[in-house]
């Protein structure tokens, strides 16, 4: 268990999270787009890489007074640059994530748990997805649960985030056999089964990057 | 990927620059926002009509900006809905003081982005805003197990007819009600002979064998409902028409507006041939009359080969509005 | 071969049946002769304007029958010139008593069949007949070692402008002189990204690798002058424009009408993008102004992907005739 | 050498010629179209098969009073059904062929030589081709010469036609290395070399059929 001082994420850590996610998306854009070609329209990788690429530039362009100001800007930037279904969903995730962090400069386990929950609730509020619909929520839902469970057990941030990322990966994998009921893949009916959901995959990538940067 | 382009990331903006240069008499383009507006703006007191969506469906939507159709359109990346800022900008570009109708196609991305835009507009005290969502594609089951039917060919018909009604001076509620009515009276079904390639993806979205077609295709290169063997045009026409006619519950003696739409890569010679088949089946087998028709590339899926059929149950009023003048890059008559 | 058709031998007639059904307000079709005539016939005293050629170039020619353009058109098999009987029938269909201009594209088959038709017409004491032959394709050397330059994009411009002149009441000689003048002021060059498949042949006319384009392509799927590597749209536009601008000897400060024409399989998003490049090069590098433009599929080669650029040296009179009303399936404004 | 009676072609023989040509064209339409795809527009086989197919039906539909009436009808039918460059050229060939046969019911060597010459002259009058331009004339010109030479040497019809057909084959083959100067292939410039001319190939097929049917 780290020291109290180490066990928090500051603005720089959040900026690293976004930078790391952007780098990962650049690397895996082709793969995400390929997943989207199979059961969607083949733009998810490009959309995400474009949006997070723009977000990654923010840190160098502007001084942010606080974590929540930064996350709000990330959310607004995603909303303004991603488009498609994922733009409003990821955008809302960050806009809502910012809320519980308004009062803090260093986000610890509790703040992160609150932010994560607010963000994921935002995705559900917008997209109305349930677990099993074969969407990004199939990644976020178990990831959030795992984070909370680890937090309740008193784990430090790093461990909470690791549990979260692992659950995210499992959540992503759980989408493969599913028949989609939300988004573009739902048009395919039974033929959507047998493919990973692109949004579930990009969400797992985002939460992996969190585990590497926020603690 | 074989396309006439420079940089996949700049296709939309460079194409819009060409649209602006080709039609300076009809429209103006804000390349920053990728918003196209009618030259000279909306006549004060006229209801504005706005649409927007992903690019790759040209002439939809930007090509329908002009007299008698849209006042403004916003263009997303290829097959990617516009972002909220664009919908907001398009709204303001179309606002002539009598409110604005937003014509949206029923896709999660389009609806979510438009919703956020409408939140922003309401925060700006904009209340005179109506939304018409098209969802005419019978290939998709309209159930709680899907995102609902897709908006396809009916979008063109709604934009034309609502545009005509707005031009006549109908008020916001009436324009929106007409749009919903037109959508409710329309059904579509499409077929692909080939896939298409999203420029930024660089490879075809799906693969079809040389002797296969994909029935129930949408307009985003997304795979359809089922594969079928390549078959004569007559049989393809029958396969497209059957679910459309049934879902509309068309009865003998009724009349329709037909949109025989090319997906982008199918030449006119084949589209007219398909229209001949569609019309023959409607006349001879179904006892349905074609009141008006439109044959050509009107709502496309990049260079996909194939076509879609949209039927709109017609009445005198619809035919009258259909015949009203329209002057846009993509649709033009009477002006 | 993946096409929406029934029997390769019936493509033309079935497609014409669709054209007739889609545009009953504009034209009538004699399916036996495969002659399309303007609805209601040629106004008495107006010079008739006729064209004809192989099919597969739609909307050319049948799609240009209507007010302000052609009075009649005859349609050969795909890529095969019409037979003399068809030219004779089209002539009679277009004859309003003031003579008829025949617009022909410079191909051996078209000229030979038309010549035989004119022999027949002269034997019927028809003397008021003028022929305008288009030969604007700079990809072909106009020498005694070739059949002469091909007629391509300029054909659309000649049909539009001669049609407008005839509508205004100009006499036969003046209409023909205008047609020859417009052709002399026009040059074209095309590029193919893919070949096309003649329905009766069933296989692509030529093969191109995934990274190859064919420069100097005609409109019959015939191979062009040379292969080149796939390149950015800007470079393709420059390669097409250079020989056109030079052959026309365009000087800074001059104005042109631009036809940015799709070959059938290239979507509008790419055509507008190409138009943007063409216009930028003309403006910025050549100092040439675009007075009017037309972007879309106007003279095609079945489902071939690619485009052609036609420039017509403009003057006030040409622009005035260009702006005159036209109401045909393929070209329509002001009416 | 056959008897005098045998050494003439009557109406039935001419009708067999057309029937045989039509059958051969049906069989080889794909090949002719393939040649036309290489240096033209890929319609020659279909055009020829359609036109001669229609001509082959004439004999069953109508009673012809004479050879020349029949050949005129064949010519007109070709003109009205083939289209393209080859329609007027082959049509003219038969229309002109009929001229010298106007006075005879049985065409012997002399009449055939005259008919052939008139037909080939008609092709030149229409198409203005010279030998070496890579057209059907490269088949017809040597074929006509060979027929004449055999006729001058006193050979019977069968032998004249055989010589004619053989020269036609060589004429056809001579087009392979040529750079086209007439018709659609001329657009290709140097790239037209290395391919047989489609019209030269169909002409050889027509004259082969003549050798099998007119004597
Ligand atoms: N209603 C929804 N709720 C949550 N996620 C959704 C919903 N609809 C779609 N998604 C997610 O969005 C992803 C697709 O994003 P993207 O390809 O960028 O947008 P589009 O489908 O508009 O092309 C899907 O893989 C899915 O995870
Ligand atoms: N001027 C000409 N004189 C003689 N033969 C010609 C001439 N032009 C073309 N041809 C012949 O016509 C043939 C092509 O016929 P076809 O394919 O039916 O017509 P098109 O070229 O109009 O498609 C060529 O192979 C050539 O033999
Ligand atoms: Mg997508
Ligand atoms: Mg998309
Ligand atoms: Mg031809
Ligand atoms: Mg040919």
Question: What does this molecule look like?
Answer:
- The complex is a heterotetramer, with 2 copies of chain A (215 residues) and 2 copies of chain B (335 residues).
- Mean pLDDT of chain A is 95; it is low at 1-5.
- Chain A has helices at 11-39, 44-61, 67-81, 86-98, 109-127, 137-152, 157-174, 198-213.
- Chain A has one domain (4-213): Serine Threonine Protein Phosphatase 5, Tetratricopeptide repeat, CATH 1.25.40.
- Chain A contains 8 helices and no strands.
- In chain A, helix 6 (137-152) packs parallel to helix 8 (198-213) and helix 7 packs antiparallel against helix 8.
- In chain A, 67% of the residues lie in helices and 0% in strands.
- Chain A starts with 10 loop residues before the first helix and ends with a helix.
- Chain A is an all-alpha fold and 215 residues long.
- With 335 residues, chain B is α/β, with parallel strands linked by helices.
- Chain B folds into 2 domains: 10-185, Dihydroxyacetone kinase, domain 1 (Rossmann fold, 3-Layer(aba) Sandwich), CATH 3.40.50; 186-326, Dihydroxyacetone kinase, domain 2 (Hypothetical Protein Tm841, Chain: A,domain 3, 2-Layer Sandwich), CATH 3.30.1180.
- Chain B has 8 helices and 14 strands.
- In chain B, the strands form 3 sheets. Chain B has a 6-stranded mixed β-sheet with strand order 1-2-4-3-5-6, with helices on both faces. A 6-stranded mixed β-sheet of chain B has the order 9-8-7-12-10-11.
- In chain B, strand 1 and strand 2 form a beta hairpin.
- In chain B, helix 2 crosses helix 3 and helix 4 (154-168) runs antiparallel to helix 5 (172-184).
- The chains are: A mainly alpha (215), B alpha/beta (335).
- Chains in contact: A-B, B-C, C-D.
- The interface between B and C is large, with 63 and 63 residues.
- The structure holds adenosine-5'-diphosphate (ADP) (2 copies) and magnesium ion (MG) (4 copies).
- One magnesium ion sits between chains C (54, 79-80, 109) and D (41, 43, 84).
